[in-house]
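Lab notebook, bench 4. We co-purified these components, and the gel suggests they stay together. Before we commit to crystallization screens, I want a quick structural picture of the whole thing.
Request: model the full complex, all chains together.
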Amino acid sequence: MRRLLIFIKKEFKHIIRDPRVLLILFGMPVVQVLIFGFALTNEIKNSKIIVLDYAKDDLSKKLINKIEASKYFEIVSFVHSKRIILDYFRQGKIKAAVIIPEKIASDIIHDGNAKIQIITDATDVNFANSIKNFIRAIINDYQYELFSKESSKINIITEMKMLYNPQLKGAPNFVPGVMSMVMLLVCVMMTAIAIVREKEMGTMEVILTSPVSPIFVIISKVVPYFVISTIDLALILLLSVYVLDLPIQGSLFLLLAESLLFIITCLNIGILISIRTSSQQVAMLMSLVGMMMPTVFLSGFMFPIENMPYALQLLSNLVPSKWFYIIVKDIMLKGTGLEIVWKETLIIASMMLFFLIISLKTFKVRLN
Amino acid sequence: MKILFYILQKEFRQVFRNKPIIAIIFVVPIVQFLILPLAADFEIKNINISVIDYDKSSTSRLLINKISGSGYFKISSNENSFKKALKIIESDNADMIIEIPANFEKKLWRESNQKLLVAINSINGIKANLGGFYILNIINEFNNELQLNMKPIFQTNKGIDITTSDWFNPHLNYKIFLIPGLLAILVTMVGGFLTALNIVREKEIGTIEQINVTPIKKWQFILGKLIPFWILANVVFSNGLLLGYLIYDIFPRGNLLTLYAFIDIYLLAVLGLGLLISTFSETQQQAMFVMFFFMIVFILLGGLFTPIDSMPVWAQYFARLNPVKYVIEAIRLVMLKGSDFEDIIPQTISILLFAIVLNFLAVLNYRKRV
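Here is the predicted assembly.
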């Protein structure tokens, strides 16, 4: 036991000695939580637009004021000809243009009908759609004010209720994803590289000739990363609760237990990769292509799974972080308990067993 | 000049001998281009709705039909209490609840005012926001139709018509947005990682000492390292461009020359970053980690998936220090909107500054070390 402790201490020293590794271990989670939590939103805010106002009358001015007063848009300039609009788009200065026709006021009064045109930069599809919707809502609102006196309207009042995330922040969607990314980084990639490094440099041989049993060697390699990933876990949770203002709705104990399960699964994958490979570069590549990329693409935290082609949806079931993502989202944000997430938990647990068995088997073969 | 040629020869041989690197250069782009655009479909469609209809009148049924017929929504379940519907949301089988109160139809006729509750799972903010808008539009439309049927006398048909046109992407194809961004990321990753790793590798296995005792000058060594990756990155970029055209039928609208000119200037900056990081690291592992850290920050803050305009002000300032932001902007402008070189002059100047500063620092730091 004391020997094991000494080994673990040696490994810790290896890690802590290098500030570049520390940057990844502790800097990465903090930076990711902050960026995902604060900087990445799809909210429409101060979107830059231009207005081409042919009418220049009372009515159009009021409408423009209304658009400008909303926090969604910022009118960068008023232009006078349609041709200039293209230039603005081509320089990437605006997201949309609103064109108000010449006789808007008289058109409304006489024909009861006027046309306003919205041109969007549709290269970003969702953004363009949102912008159209917002401008449309503002114009409709304005219209309602114009005509409300003269009609006794039938009115269905829609009461909207945003569940779980009333301010529509981006963070709730991302924090569980960041958790699984960091776990993968630390437990799979770093662990695999650390073990393979000893192999590549030949120091593994030296250790194996010592009276320490090979299992101990692996354990002493893994324990520091286990400790570091739990620290990262705590760090992420603290940041998301106190900095991002994202309270944990469900049971903290359950969340921690599930996270530990996921960490152990990841460590198993890391060990498996290190057993199967003999150079750091290959280990790095395998953890990147085999684990990181699927997590980013297929776990559902960056891209909605339900929109993917069926084959990819099936494939996503093999990605452990997909299940972890669902579990964390349910417990942290919806406050559900084990009665809802037991299925996902079972899947991760069996994945862990699977990797454990395979690595134990391969490990024995190699040491013979 | 002859010496430089020999160094280049050596570098190219080493690159082509290294199988994982060849894989990175040629296979990763293909995988990325095949899978990512398929996976990264942010279009909002198929929003599942759980309906609670306490009214069960012809009006409520008409409304439900209108919603399910709109194309955006799918009625996934009918429940008889809000609690049960909430359970459906918790199990992720629905994204939205619509509750139609009892006597909805009657009250609408008599008091011409009636409430309707829509509750949306807003963990995914974008989806909730757009879904909310869609449903509001449908309900408003329904409202107007009812009005027309019930009180035709009052229907004056006055109003502002709003027409919209979607420029540069009339079919609202999401992939068009993604491909140029992916190209930018591809070039950045290949150029940055390969340069950083390559130079550090010479340090790690000790061959850099051997080069140092030869009459090779510093500038020859650095150029000999940078030129191969500059060329390789150009090959990767052309590869990606070709793939984008073959698979997704996306071809740059702007001038190809402008595009390449910008990318080549940008590559100077990226290679400079790789060089700088390599002078700070002793092992490939360290170089890899540091590069990885910067890449993640740069890519996330580069506006690939979420617009920079929506970021908080501090992040926008921060994004100005991010070369990836400029290249994504410029490639999108040239490829999608057909912008000319004059249009992307601001981006070009910024990138040129990056290239000068990064390479200057790298060369400065390199001299000290060796």
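Chain B touches chain A through 105 residues (CB under 8 Å). Worth comparing against the SEC data before the next meeting. Strands of chain B lie at 47-53, 73-79, 96-100, 113-121, 159-167.
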